[in-house]
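Marked as duplicate of an earlier ticket. Keeping the data here for the record.
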Amino acid sequence: MKFSDTLRKLWRRWYIVLPGIIVAAALAVGVWYTIPPGYERSATQLLIPGAASMPDGANPYLFLGGLAPAADVLVRAVGSENVLNEMVAEHPDTKIAITRDTTTAGPVVLIVVTAPSDAAAKRVLELLVTRTATVLEDLQRTENIASNNRVTVLPITVDTKSVLQERTRMVGAAGAGIAGVVLTLLLAGLVDGFSSKRRRRRRARSTKAVDAPDAERDEPSAHEGAVTDREGEESLSSPAEVTGGEKTPQPQQEKEKERETQKARQSRSSAGGSPSMEPEFATLGHQSPNDDVDEDEERAPLARPVRRAR
């Protein structure tokens, strides 16, 4: 399907697409204001070697190379679940990340705090900066390290202003808006598909309704065919055959005519007359003897060739 056809279908269903887009936008705005933004603050701390581990009057920043393992130990100690749970219990919905800063070659500890409010982020970061120094001091005291040889923590940077983090809000709002638009387009496509099927069905029904009368006119009905066949059977089975526009006489009528003819003969014979035979034969509907002789003479020449052929 072409992109233009898709746009045409969506334009036909504007009454679904337009409200759906409005609802999706409202949903995105609602999610944006429902999810609070995050306030992020960070701090970096540098480990400094003890005065006894350096020459007198030496620069401590020149002896940082061997403190990377100590920074890893400190990160593990401060980032333990016990310490983090104490911080989160006082300030819920706060995220804490304590790592060694890998972007530098020195023993730098990076602390990142993300809280739902600026005040909470500030408070948690101050507690962690203090806790780092405390934990490091406790570890060295446990090992009975001389105080002049102990490693100390020097804060390098501590944020005084939070950075607003809106990534979570943006992701949530974008997801809600995209989901609403996709559902709107799917609904519009389904409605358009059902409407197209309904139109095709109506066209098919109208076409059948137009073709049905033509078929009925072209083909005789079964009732008419049965009536025609019945009339034909009656005409064939009728005893009266039409010959020259007159019906064939019934046997009863022939008998009555013969009786009348016999009565006429008797009446003539009783009168003493000798009527000729020809009238009698004429009244009976037969040929006279003379006619028979003539017919025999006519048939004789025709019979000879037949006998020769045999």
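See parent ticket for discussion. The longest strand covers residues 38-48.
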